[in-house]
Amino acid sequence: MADSPDKLDELKTSAFDRRFSIAKASLLAGTRWATANAGTLFSSEEVKEQKRKQAMREQAQYLAHEIGKLKGSIVKIGQMMALYGEHFLPPEVTEALHSLNNDTLALSWTAIETQLRAQLGDKLDELTIDREPLGSASLAQVHRAVRKSDGLEIVLKVQYPGVAEAIDSDMALFRNMLKLTRMVPQTREFDEWFEEVRSMMHREVDYHMEADTTRRFGERLKNDSRYIVPQVIDEYCTDRVLCMTFERGVPINSPVMLSLPQSRRNALGAASIEICVREIFEWGEMQTDPNFGNYLVRMGDGKEQPDRIVLLDFGAIRPFDDNLIRVAQNLIIAGYHHNMDKMVAAMQGFPFFDAIPEHAKPLIGSVFLLATEPFTSPASNPDAPANAFDSQGCYHWKASNLHSRVIRKAGESMINPYVSVPPKEFMFISRKFIGAYTFMTVIDAHTDVRSMITPFLNGR
Questions:
Q1: 8 Å CB contact between 120 and 238
Q2: Cβ-count burial of 157 within 10 angstroms (0-12 exposed, 13-18 middle, 19+ buried)?
Q3: Which of 22, 36, 282, 399 qualifies as a FRET site for 104, CA 20 to 30 Å off?
Q4: Crossing angle, helix 361-371 and helix 322-337, to 10 degrees?
């Protein structure tokens, strides 16, 4: 079977090829940007601003398209900047970078087969592999396969050739691209995020680490029928290939999800948020990628067989130090009590919060109080909207419109001159909770989140 014309035959993994591609794209974008600015010399300020934004949008979209062709860590850098860069990147740039989440071409089967043969050798002959990928991303793509000897259905996560070796040079290329285009300010926060992304890239291409993490979460959840964690199949794992059992399920945002009875959607919502709670209060590490593609739902029968959440992709698991975990726990517990004094006290001991003047801390506290609204109750939280809780006291995610209210409140807090870009660790945690909140809003779940925190109060 011939490869589809919309797939890449090979990656530009050599330093020269990637430098040339990025330099060419950057110079072209920079020239267009300068030309667009020169064309507004005699325009009104309003017209200049409109044309400036339009030019930036067009150049950012062009660069995102060119980056998508390269794959590898350059794409992942762009994806992470789209997720976390709203505090220091122009909105036109983050908007364009978001396209990298769903606009990356797959690598052709010929190239993937070559990589698999290099990694697995004769073991490849033991498998029948679907040439069409289940999914493709910036660092790897996933192919379904069957083991011939016993019919075991598996998936092979195949890392693109050369991407692990190109991470550090790709970081330098991406930085140079932004300098050449002059669309992004070079700030301390930007530098810190670059270093964080570098660390994340090296973790994500470490398939032995991901396999260990998958096993660890599988062990934690093995006796909980609400979850499914794929099993790692060691005999087909290498430095560049991760093999796991194939697990069936439907996407979270599938229309069939909304057709489920309310009680079943409520149970799935509770299982989703409980994972977040346990990551903070028990395990000290968290899946920090809020992508819906990392989860599936295996439908039950509504009677004996429960609906189950399939947890996928443990490459973005991040451990947190004890001090950060303590602060995060105390912030959630202060939210549980819906108490501003407790919230401000919970911030103590973390450098970012300690640097904020005392009179400005309630501003940040108000954001956390709002974000932890689901952990409260109608009795403990008179500030909650009347429709935020149902008649049983469960939080009604969709009706509460919490997601929009938190984003608006956080935006207001960032205007304060005493508040800088939040530390990356808190942004990871907040993104994870936002992902879980969005999950429950999408499936229109009602959940008793408060009861999940109660076992961890210990008098606090």
A1: yes
A2: buried
A3: 36
A4: 70
The residues pairing with 144 across neighbouring beta strands, listed in sequence order, are: 155
In the chain the domains, ranked by start, together with CATH numbers, are 15-103+167-178 (no CATH), 108-159+206-247 (3.30.200.20), 249-460 (no CATH)
* Count of CB atoms situated within 10 Å of the CB of 128: 11
For residue 336, the Cα-to-chain-centroid distance in whole angstroms is 26
Provide the residue type at 315 as one letter: G
142 within 8 A of 157, measured Cβ to Cβ: yes
- C-alpha 83/C-alpha 352 separation (Å) is 21
The pTM of this model reads 0.83
pLDDT in tens, the chain (460 residues): 445 556 766 655 555 555 555 555 554 555 555 555 555 554 566 656 666 677 677 777 777 777 766 666 777 777 777 776 666 677 777 777 777 765 467 889 999 999 999 999 999 999 999 999 998 887 899 999 999 999 999 999 999 988 888 888 888 877 777 776 666 666 777 777 778 778 888 888 999 999 999 999 999 999 999 999 999 999 999 999 999 999 999 998 888 988 999 999 999 999 999 999 999 999 999 988 777 788 999 999 888 899 999 999 898 888 888 999 999 999 999 999 999 999 999 998 888 888 888 888 898 899 999 999 999 999 999 999 999 999 999 999 999 999 888 878 877 766 666 666 667 777 778 878 888 888 889 899 999 999 999 999 987 7
Q: CA neighbours within 13 Å on the CB side: how many for 258?
A: 7
The H or E element spanning position 250 is: strand 250-251
